[in-house]
Design a protein that fits this description.
heterodimer; A: alpha/beta; ten-stranded mixed β-sheet; two-stranded parallel sheet; 12 helices; 41% helix; B: mainly alpha; two-stranded antiparallel sheet
C-alpha cells in the first residue's frame, strides 16, 4: 500500500549519485513539496468540470422553448426538414428532431421524454387508448425488384406467397426460372409492421428472408441481385429499381391519394394528454397547406 | 509522504470507478436478462430456433449456430493467415522487412468495422453472388471479413510468442542439422504453442463480439445456415438489429442474448488466460 518507502538498492544509489554529479545541484523547484498542492489540484478539477457543464446550462434557455420530436427513422428526415423550415418563420421556438424508431417514439411520449412522437405505422388497439394520433402524411409501400427481373405485376396473394416462402421460384409468378430471395426489415421496424399488416395477413415472413436494417440497405441489395424482392418507402425508390404494380395498380402518389393503391401507411405524430401551445404551433404548421406542400414535394402523399 | 498519499488515493479512485463501471454493466445485463431466461426456460431459450418476438417466441439456437459458424470460418481464415505471417516475420523474413510489415498488419486493427463491412458489401458480396451463387450475403462473406479483422490480433500475439522462445532452442536445432522449416515446425511452433493458442482464442473473442461488419455482410436471416453460402444471423447482430425498437419482454430477451454472449466471451478469455499462464509457469 501507499506510505511504504521503497527500499533503494545500491544500484539505485549509484544512479542517483551519477545523476547528481551530472546535473550539479538539483534545482529547488524539482525537490519542492508544494509544486501542485492538493488545493490547487482541487481548484483545477473544479474548473475543468465547470467548463464541461457550463455550455449546457446556457443552451436550453436562450432561444425560448424547445419542442422535442422523437421516433420513426422513416419520418425523421421529413420532420427535420419541416423543423428547419419552421425555424425560419418562428425563431423563438426550437424543434428538436431525433430518430430511434416508431416504438422508441411511443415510449418517449409515454414517459414524457418527448412531447411529440413519430410513428410510421397505424397504432394498434392498445396504443389508440393511450395516445392521440395525428396523420401528417401518407406513404406508399413500394414492392421493388431488380430492373432485370421480367415480372412487373403481382397480386397481394403472390406477395404473401413470395415473402412467406411458399412461392420459391420466379417462374411461378410469370418470371424466369430462378430462386426468389425475399428481403425484409428488422423486427419492430414501422415499415415491416405496415407490410405485415397490409400484406401478410396471418402468415409469417419466411425465416430464410434476408434482414436489412434500413431502406437504403434494402435498395442496395435489390439493385445488385436479380433474384431479390423487397419492400420500401415509395418516396425513396428512385430510378435504379423497378416498383411493381400490385393488383393491377401502379404505385404512384396519385394512386395512394386516391386510395386505389392499397399498400399505404400513415405517417403519424403522436401525443399524449394535453399538448403545450408551442408543440401545437409546430403541429399546426405541419398540417397547414405550406407544411403539406413541403411533404408532397419531398415524395410523400398529403394527409387529405 | 502526504503528496504520495494524495496521489495514490486519487489514482485508486479512478481505477475503482473504471472497475465499478464494468461491475455495473455486468449486474445490469444479468438483472435484465437472467430472469427472462429462467422464465422462458433455459431449454426453450437456448435450444429452440423459434425467434418471433411478436408471438412471444424467444429461441436463440439458430443464432448460436450462426455465431459458431461465422466464428469458426473467421478463425480458420484468420489463424492460417495470421500464423503464416507470424512465422514469416520471425523465421524467414529479413528483420528489417518484418519491422516494416508488422506495423502495416497492426494498422488493420485501426480501421473501423463499418469500413470493413462496407468493403465487404461493395466488393466481396457481389463476387460471391456472381461466382458462387446464393445471395452473396452469407456465412462465407462474414467469415472472410472477420478473418481479415482478426489478423492483427492473431499475428502480433503469435509473433510475440515466437520471439519469446529462447534463442538457444533455435541455435541447437540448426546446429543439429535441421533446416529452417524443420526448426520452425518441430521446435519453434512447439515451444510457442501456448502463446499461439492464446492468440487464436483472443482473436476468437474479437470475432464473436464483432457486430457492425457482420450485420452488413451476413444477411441476418433467422434460419440456421445449411451451407456457407446461406445467410446467417449472429447473437450480436440480433441484439443490434432489434435493440432500437424492442420493449418489454422483447427487450429483456435481447438482454438475455447479451448474457449468453457475455458468458461465451468470458469463457474464451478465461481459457486464454489459463493457457498463457500455464506457458509462463512452465518457462519460469
Amino acid at each position: 500500500m501507499y506510505g511504504v518507502i521503497p527500499k533503494i538498492s545500491s544500484e539505485g544509489t549509484r544512479r542517483a549519485e551519477a545523476l547528481r554529479a551530472r546535473v550539479g545541484v538539483i534545482p529547488k523547484i524539482l525537490v519542492g513539496r508544494r509544486r501542485l498542492s492538493s488545493k490547487a489540484l482541487r481548484a483545477l478539477v473544479l474548473a475543468a468540470t465547470m467548463a464541461l457543464i457550463m455550455p449546457c446550462i446556457g443552451c436550453k434557455d436562450d432561444g425560448g422553448r424547445v419542442v422535442s420530436v422523437v421516433g420513426s427513422t422513416s419520418i425523421q428526415p421529413f420532420a427535420e426538414f419541416l423543423a428547419e423550415q419552421y425555424g425560419r418563420k418562428d425563431p423563438g421556438l426550437q424543434v428538436e428532431v431525433q430518430g430511434g424508431g416508431s416504438t422508441v417514439g411511443l415510449q418517449a411520449v409515454a414517459n414524457g421524454l418527448a412531447e411529440v412522437g413519430m410513428c410510421s405505422r397505424a397504432l394498434n388497439a392498445e396504443e389508440v387508448e393511450q395516445f392521440t394520433p395525428i396523420t401528417i402524411a401518407r406513404d406508399g409501400l413500394a414492392i421493388v425488384v431488380n430492373p432485370a427481373n421480367q415480372v412487373s405485376r403481382l397480386t397481394t396473394g403472390h406477395l404473401r406467397g413470395l415473402f412467406s416462402g411458399t412461392i420459391k421460384n420466379w417462374k411461378d409468378v410469370g418470371g424466369l426460372d430462378g430462386p426468389v430471395r425475399p428481403i425484409t426489415r428488422e423486427e419492430g421496424s414501422g415499415t415491416r409492421e405496415s407490410f405485415v399488416h397490409l400484406v401478410m395477413d396471418k402468415e409469417r415472413i419466411s425465416r430464410a428472408a434476408l434482414t436489412q436494417e434500413s431502406n437504403g440497405a434494402v435498395k442496395e441489395l435489390v439493385k445488385g441481385d436479380p433474384a431479390a424482392i423487397g419492400y420500401m418507402s415509395l418516396g425513396l425508390v428512385g430510378e435504379e429499381l423497378k416498383a411493381l404494380q400490385i393488383d393491377d395498380v401502379e404505385p404512384t402518389s396519385e394512386n395512394v391519394l386516391a386510395g386505389t393503391y392499397k399498400l399505404a401507411r400513415p405517417f403519424l405524430f403522436v401525443t399524449k394528454g394535453p399538448v403545450s401551445p408551442e408543440a401545437q404551433r409546430f403541429i399546426d404548421y405541419v398540417l397547414s397547406s405550406e407544411g403539406q406542400r413541403i411533404l408532397e414535394s419531398e415524395g410523400l402523399v398529403r394527409a387529405q | 509522504m502526504k503528496q504520495d498519499k494524495f496521489v495514490s488515493t486519487v489514482l485508486m479512485l479512478i481505477a475503482l470507478s473504471a472497475i465499478s463501471g464494468l461491475a455495473l454493466i455486468t449486474v445490469f445485463i444479468f438483472m435484465e436478462g437472467l430472469p427472462m431466461i429462467l422464465r422462458t426456460g433455459a431449454r426453450e431459450f437456448f435450444l429452440s430456433s423459434d425467434w418471433d418476438p411478436r408471438a412471444g417466441h424467444f429461441g436463440i439456437f439458430s443464432m448460436i449456430i450462426g455465431s459458431v459458424a461465422v466464428t469458426t470460418g473467421a478463425m480458420t481464415i484468420g489463424s492460417v493467415f495470421g500464423l503464416a505471417l507470424a512465422i514469416a516475420f520471425t523465421q524467414f523474413c529479413h528483420p528489417r522487412l518484418a519491422a516494416l510489415l508488422k506495423p502495416v498488419i497492426e494498422l488493420l486493427a485501426g480501421i473501423p468495422s463499418v469500413v470493413y463491412g462496407f468493403m465487404g458489401v461493395v466488393t466481396l458480396v457481389p463476387l460471391i453472388r456472381t461466382y458462387l451463387g446464393g445471395a452473396g450475403l452469407s456465412v462465407l462473406a462474414a467469415s472472410i471479413v472477420l478473418g481479415i479483422m482478426v489478423l492483427p490480433t492473431v499475428t502480433s500475439i503469435s509473433v510475440d510468442a515466437l520471439r519469446a522462445v529462447p534463442r538457444p532452442y533455435w541455435e541447437g536445432s540448426i546446429a543439429l542439422g535441421a533446416t529452417r522449416w524443420q526448426t520452425t515446425h518441430m521446435v519453434m511452433l512447439k515451444a510457442a504453442r501456448s502463446g499461439i493458442a492464446t492468440a487464436v482464442i483472443l482473436g476468437m473473442g474479437r470475432a464473436v463480439g464483432e457486430t457492425m461488419a457482420v450485420i452488413m455482410v451476413a444477411g441476418n436471416a433467422l434460419e440456421a445456415p445449411h451451407s456457407i453460402l446461406d445467410p446467417v444471423r449472429t447473437l450480436t447482430s440480433n441484439i443490434a438489429l432489434e435493440m432500437g425498437y424492442a420493449s418489454g419482454e422483447h427487450r429483456r430477451a435481447l438482454f438475455a442474448t447479451g448474457v449468453t454472449l457475455f458468458v461465451i466471451i468470458m469463457l474464451l478469455n478465461t481459457v486464454a488466460l489459463r493457457v498463457s499462464r500455464r506457458a509462463a509457469g512452465r518457462k519460469g
